[in-house]
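Practice problem 4.
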């Protein structure tokens, strides 16, 4: 569906839970509280939202969290979403800890692609960031997902300027057919306390490490990453630079939080409380109409741009585990 800025909004990220089996310091540090299960949308409710989103022209759906793989029965949800008319792609963003064992079920349910979050190839640093000694487990999941034929991307938040760390992450794109993407830290939730490195600085490091690197103009997905190729590497290197290369004018996405709120921009708390409609006592047809209309109105007034450069103007205070990244 087209918003008031002529942007085609065709992508919904769905946070299926605010719970997680890791405790990344910039996202969901130790001690953070989670919602009672009754406040989280059921699969039936998520499907009802997806149906109306599809009616409005949304085509790509990404399951995220918290950690989507900790939600029991995830493959049932994927199958449900896949069966909605008009859906073109169902993908997932995961920390990869539980992924390897779940792959056969997820793929047979219709999962198209997976983004695996991995900020470092250093075992101690991984433990320090996430609270879990899980680097090898995640790497096994990356390899297994590639072997299973899924389209795989590895996403790293740009935390360190350490060249060795950057080089060893990018080495994954030499070994495997995966794109390795760096994400600039956004001042959302606990991320405000961890500025990370700027992508101007990262770009300088990349040019220095890979003088033969060239721009890659092929289409890699439906997101805002800018891609580069390194001769001899199977995958590309991507930069998602929300701060230093604002991409709001081509933003194609909205987000459904785990408690059923449709968010139209990471920066602002504006949107639509779909759970209120989903749980209201009214005839099914009326509910569908109201869901669709509230989504349409919220999408139409999607903010023109984020305001990360002046965080005091942000009205969103939720942590990233509730929003879904
Ligand atoms: N648990 C899953 C995972 O880690 O991939 C899915 C949810 S997580 C919130 C989605 C993505 O958001 C992860 O790649 C995470 O690193 C990223 N993220 C979390 N907080 C962020 C922030 N403040 N700025 C940029 N990315 C962030
Ligand atoms: Fe969990 Fe993902 Fe947040 Fe890390 S980034 S705490 S894995 S939701």
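Answer key:
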């Amino acid at each position: 569906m087209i918003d008031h800025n002529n942007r085609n909004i065709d992508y919904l990220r769905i946070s299926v839970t605010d719970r997680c089996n890791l405790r990344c310091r910039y996202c969901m540090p130790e001690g953070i509280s989670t919602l009672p299960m009754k406040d989280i949308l059921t699969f039936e409710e998520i499907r009802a939202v997806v149906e109306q989103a599809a009616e409005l022209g949304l085509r790509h759906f990404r399951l995220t969290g918290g950690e989507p793989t900790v939600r029991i029965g995830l493959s049932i949800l994927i199958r449900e979403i896949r069966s909605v008319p008009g859906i073109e792609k169902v993908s997932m963003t995961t920390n990869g800890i539980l992924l390897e064992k779940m792959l056969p079920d997820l793929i047979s349910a219709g999962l198209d692609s997976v983004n695996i979050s991995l900020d470092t190839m250093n075992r101690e640093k991984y433990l320090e960031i996430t609270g879990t000694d899980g680097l090898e487990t995640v790497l096994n999941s990356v390899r297994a997902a590639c072997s299973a034929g899924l389209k795989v991307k590895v996403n790293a938040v740009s935390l360190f300027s350490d060249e060795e760390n950057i080089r060893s992450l990018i080495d994954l794109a030499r070994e495997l057919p995966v794109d390795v993407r760096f994400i600039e830290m956004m001042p959302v939730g606990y991320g405000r306390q961890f500025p990370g490195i700027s992508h101007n600085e990262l770009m300088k490091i990349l040019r220095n490490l890979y003088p033969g690197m060239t721009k890659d103009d092929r289409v890699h997905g439906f997101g805002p990453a800018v891609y580069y190729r390194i001769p001899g590497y199977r995958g590309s290197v991507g930069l998602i630079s929300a701060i230093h290369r604002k991409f709001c004018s081509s933003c194609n996405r909205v987000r459904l939080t785990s408690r059923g709120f449709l968010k139209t921009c990471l920066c602002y708390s504006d949107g639509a409380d779909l759970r209120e409609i989903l749980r209201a006592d009214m005839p099914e047809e009326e509910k569908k109409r109201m869901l669709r209309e509230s989504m349409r109105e919220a999408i139409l007034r999607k903010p023109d741009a984020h305001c990360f450069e002046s965080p005091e103007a942000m009205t969103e205070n939720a942590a990233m585990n509730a929003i879904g990244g």
